[in-house]
Amino acid sequence: MASVKMPQLGESITEGTIAKWLKKPGDQVKKYEALVEVITDKVNAEVPAPLAGILREIKVKEGATVTVGTEIAVIEESAGATAAAPKAASSEPPAAEISGPSANGGSQEGRARLSPAVRALIEQHGISDADLGRISGSGGGGRISKKDVEEYVAGRGQGEASEGAVKAPTRVAPSAAGQPVPLSPMRRAIATNMTKSKQTIPHAWTVAEVDMSKVVRFRQQVRAGFKEREGIDLTYVPIIIKGVVEGLKAVPILNASWSDAGVVQHRDINIGIAVSIDDGLIVPVIRGADRMSISGLAKATDDLARRARAGKLTLDDVQGATFTVNNPGTFGTILSYSIIAPPQAGILAMDAIVKRPVVVDGDAIAVRSMMNLCLSFDHRVLDGVSAARFLQGVRHWLEGFSEQIPLH
């Protein structure tokens, strides 16, 4: 018998949540075949079987969170086992299986791999497997999203209301006020990590107001040609990341991590970018951002965001960030304070670019495209003067932006 243990899915990760078992006790498994889906606050990952054999026992149920190194299953090794083995009796529920044709032509595999948040919503509304087969998945590969389930439930409710004219009235008990919404494994992991961050890191923050008028004009001039040439939109994010990289080069103490042995300054600049998904927030990493042009950063950002929302990120995609950039401004926010992702020393939030009157050239008033940048930093690693120097460096780089700065 061989023990399968909870792996460490990334640096600083100490625990994981069992999202879904992909095999049942008694099933034959091949070496490196996907065995179980595990969720942390950073990634959903399929953990492969360490060897070929028969899955004899599942030690940790779906939804449970355990520390790294905990035994989660037992495999009986079988050299060259090829015939289907008899299935052992088990109290473990079988992995969710969805039958029936895909309503939108998506792959059956994509529809079957529901996120924990979607599964919780399905259970909450008592949606059967048969009914689930009628839901058209709008996600990547035909995956069903929370929005798809909510629209189905709303439509079902309307249908039931119309049928009520010919059915006997049914007494409906009033809903209990304040009923808690079940936490998805990812939301629980995020809550745990953010609580740890606030409890262990002395957060400090500072804000700079940035005139983005030159950046806005530059983007307007090159946006159409960039889209035609590269096939993706040129957003403000890669331009701001470029400014962040220049700021980190000038103030390298912020490109660092805290440890009990001392502050670890990183040579490479790996930028984490916060991406919103159905279950919460995930932070894939642009490695070697200091060696990329604005065009390269745009391509990397677009690729990581697309794969994050499609559930296609790998473990390598979410490890090794030395600094994080968050973009709440896409939702219209004007001042945001972000929580640091340990063990990094800082995170920068960029807010919405808003046109408003400002004083320029002494006493003149002009309309400018303004944006707030908020830096949260670990006060153990650096002091306010270094944080302010970094933020002002980013501001000066963005306000001094010109067409002479290479796009490629």
Structure description:
Among the domains are: 2-77, RNA polymerase II/Efflux pump adaptor protein, barrel-sandwich hybrid domain (OB fold (Dihydrolipoamide Acetyltransferase, E2P)); 202-399, Chloramphenicol acetyltransferase-like domain (Chloramphenicol Acetyltransferase, 2-Layer Sandwich), CATH 3.30.559. Mean pLDDT is 82; it is low at 81-112 and 160-170. It starts with a strand and ends in a 9-residue tail after the last helix. Strands 9, 12, 15, 16, 17, 18 and 19 form a seven-stranded mixed β-sheet that branches. The protein has a four-stranded antiparallel β-sheet with strand order 1-8-6-3, with no helix packed on it. Helices cover 29% and strands 24% of the residues. The protein has helices at 108-112, 116-124, 129-132, 146-163, 185-200, 213-230, 236-250, 294-309, 384-399; strands at residues 2-5, 15-21, 28-29, 34-39, 44-48, 53-58, 65-67, 71-77, 203-211, 256-259, 262-265, 271-273, 275-277, 280-282, 285-286, 323-326, 346-350, 354-360, 364-378. The radius of gyration is 25 Å and the shape is globular. With 408 residues, it is of the alpha+beta class. Strand 10 and strand 11 form a beta hairpin. Helix 7 crosses helix 9 (384-399). The protein has nine helices and 19 strands.
